[in-house]
Design brief:
The chain has two domains: 37 residues, no CATH class; 113 residues, Immunoglobulin-like (Sandwich). By secondary structure, the chain is mainly β. Helix content is 10%, strand content 49%.
C-alpha cells in the first residue's frame, strides 16, 4: 500500500479503487474497523456482553458472552429481551440451563417489567468455559432461546 500520492487499488475486500494514498489508508482502516468490530450491547443490569463469531468462515451464528467470573463468586447475569421487539407481550417465565461446563444456577427470575431475565451463577472451575441456555416464554406463548458463554478464571 502506498501512503502518499500513489494510486492504491482495493479495500480489505478488494472492491474499491482509491486515488489518494492518505485517503486510501484512512478508508482501509475505517473499513477494517467497521467490518471486524463485534457489536456490543447491554444484557441485564449487571453484564456488558458482546456477540463473538464462533467461526465466521463457516457462517455459524454469533455467541453471546457474559463477563468472566471467579469460582467463589455468586453473581447475577441477565438478558434484556427488548431487542426481540416483544411490544406489549411481556415475559412470564424463564429457564436457565447449563449446557456445558460446571457453573451452577442458584436461582432465576423474570424482572417485574417483563422484558428481562436474571440468573445467579456460582461455582465453576478455573480456566473453563460454560454455556448456559436461556429459554424465555411470553404471555402470548412466544418462546425465545439464547445461549450464552461464560469463562471462569482467576483475576
Amino acid at each position: 500500500m502506498a501512503w502518499l500520492g500513489v494510486k492504491w487499488t482495493g479495500t480489505a475486500s478488494g472492491s474499491t479503487t482509491w486515488t489518494s494514498g492518505v485517503l486510501a489508508a484512512v478508508a482501509w482502516l475505517l473499513s477494517f474497523v467497521r467490518d471486524s468490530a463485534p457489536p456490543e450491547r447491554t444484557i441485564g443490569a449487571t453484564a456488558l456482553i458482546r456477540r463473538v463469531p464462533a467461526n465466521p468462515e463457516r457462517g455459524r451464528p454469533m455467541q453471546l458472552t457474559w463477563p468472566a467470573k471467579e469460582p467463589a463468586e455468586v453473581l447475577d447475569y441477565g438478558i434484556d429481551w427488548r431487542e426481540r421487539q416483544l411490544g406489549e407481550d411481556p415475559l412470564v417465565s424463564a429457564q436457565y440451563e447449563v449446557m456445558s461446563g460446571d457453573v451452577s444456577i442458584d436461582r432465576d427470575s423474570v424482572d417485574p417489567s417483563g422484558y428481562s431475565t436474571t440468573a445467579w451463577l456460582s461455582g465453576g472451575t478455573i480456566n473453563t468455559r460454560s454455556v448456559v441456555k436461556v429459554t424465555a416464554r411470553t404471555q402470548s406463548g412466544r418462546v425465545m432461546i439464547e445461549r450464552v458463554a461464560i469463562n471462569v478464571r482467576e483475576r
